[in-house]
Fold this sequence. Notes:
Tumour Suppressor Smad4; 3 domains; disordered C terminus; 23 strands; alpha+beta; about 30% strand; 6-stranded antiparallel sheet
Amino acid sequence: MPAGVRACHFCGGDLVERLHARGVAEEEEPDAPGGDGRAHFLVTSAGESIRLEPTQVFVLGRSTAADLVARSTDVSRQHAQIVWSSGAPLLQDLDARHGTFLDGQRLQPHAVAPLSHGQRIRLASNTVLFYFHVAPERVPDEIRAHGIGGITQEFALEDLAKRKTTRRYRRPTIGAASEPASDAPSVLPTRGSLDAIPGSQLLSILKAKAFSGRVSFFDGIHRGELHLVNGNVYEARMGREEGDSVVQTLANLRRGTFRIAGDVPRRGSLSRIAPDDLFCEYYEGEATGILSLFREDDPNALTGRVVFIDGLARSAGFGRLVGAAALERIGALRKGRFVFEDRSREELDGRMQTPLGQRETIRLDRAALVPKRKRPD
C-alpha cells in the first residue's frame, strides 16, 4: 500500500480508487522531505500558518481533540480531515451538517477532493483556511499575494507602534480636570489613609503619575471604585452612583482609606477611552485574554472581539471583517462598551484556530520595537 492514508473514515473504502473513478490521476512519487524544498501548509484567515506532515491525518473540527480547533457553533465536532495518497493531500468531508467547501464548491458527504496550491477551504459559513504548497520561507509572500487579512507578529508590532504615536486623549474624561501634583511621591502608594492624603491630592498624584489601574476607597459607610488610564478616569462607581459625582465625592473626602492596584482596563465605555489607548494599555500590561466589544445601547449585542497574547493583538474580528481590516474598524470606534477577560495561552490557541504546541514562539525586544508611551506634559 502506498504511503499515506487511503481508507475512508466511515466505510473503509479506498480513497485513491475514488479519485481514479473521477479521472484524477494519482501522483507517481510522493513529495520526499527536502526534495524540492516545498512543504504543505494550512493558513487561517487570521494569517497563521500550520505545517502539515505527509502521511498524518489532520482533523478539522470543533472538538478539542481535533488537530485544528474551530470555535464556531456551525462547525461539527469532526467536520473534515486532510488525508494523504502518495504524498498528495486530499480533503475529505466527514458528513458535516453545514458542509465543507473547496473553492466555493460543497463536497458531498464523505467525498474526497485533491488539494491544489492556493485553494480556499471553508468549514460551514465562517471558518476559512487556505492550502499552500510552497517553500517555508515563501509562506508570508503567499499570504500577502492572496490578500489574507492576518495579524502576524510583525504587523501587530508595526500597528502598535503607529497607535503609540497617535494616541487619542480627546475622550471626555470623568470628573473635573485636576492639576498634577508638583510634590508627587516618587513611588505611588498601594494603600493609605485619606486623613494623610486627602482625596483631591490623591487624584492629583494619580494624574501626575499617569497612573493606569484601579483605585478603591472607603469613607466608613460606602465603598467606591475608579478606573483610570494614563491618569484619566474613564469609569467611576459608588453604590448606585456613577460618573462625575463619584469622582467629586472622592475629591471632597478627608477621612477614610484607599487602595491602588495597577491593572489593564477591564470594562467601560468607548466614549470615555479610545480603542487605541486600550490597545496600548494591554501591550504595556502584557495582557493575555479576549477583548469583547458590545453596542452602547445593548450590552448583550456582541459586535467584535480581539485576542491578545502578551499584549499583542493576534486575532481580530468585527462584523464580517477579520485581521487588519477589523483592527482598523475597531480603532475608529467612538461609542460602545468593552469587556476584557483574562485567558490562558492554551485557551487562546483554540480561539485562534491553532493546534496546541504548533505556534512558533517569538522573543520580543519590547523596548527596541515599540516606542515608550509619552507622558502628558
